[in-house]
Amino acid sequence: MKMKLFCICTLIFVIAQQVVSAQPRSLFNGNxxxxxxxxxxxRDKDTSARMPFIVRNGMLVSLGTPGGxxxxxxxxxxYHLEVVYRFAGKPANCGVLVxxxxxxxxxxxFPQSIEVQMMHLNAGDFWCIVEDITVPDMEKRRGPKANxxxxxxxxxxxxxxxxxxxxxxxxxxxxxIECLGNTIKAYVNNKLMNAGYNCxxxxxxxxxxxEGSEVEFAKVILTPIR
Length: 226
Fold this sequence. Notes:
It is a single chain. The protein is 13% helix and 36% strand. It is mainly beta and 226 residues long. Strand 8 and strand 9 form a beta hairpin. The longest helix is centred in the first third of the chain and has 20 residues.
């Protein structure tokens, strides 16, 4: 009886530890960019070029230009990622990159990754950046198979499932990305916008873009999937 009770207590303890380890954690502390590093090609030769990623009023801000990426120092796998964002001015382009690895793998700018698009009216698109992913209705959503690819001018865009998920410009949007094994799902304001499988990467860094438009990020929260 004592042994049985001991085993039950041990099991409860182990489960409790797993629950604790799977608690959400913010990747942005609200004060500085600790835990991130920027890769901005324009600053290689011109050190006076502005840093396009700043902290302002407790928010992480992508100023849009010069182009580049803010990349986590750590790599992650099997997680939910919640990003709360809005376009602060004229909307244009931005994105969240998952499973990022080799820097500047495409056009000497974009790290090898899968991008979940945030571009206004196109949020939820997948872009294959030297990584690949499969979705249902592949030819309908990516174009003729002969044009598919992951680099250069190949067809790298996988169009989102439905329109109308985004809030009006200036209002907050919530993007949720689930990376589990070789699958990726993307939601915008609780609408499923994309879902793929057979991803060629299952682990990597997370990156935010500076790609032409000022974007404010109120939250970047990661929850491990156990």
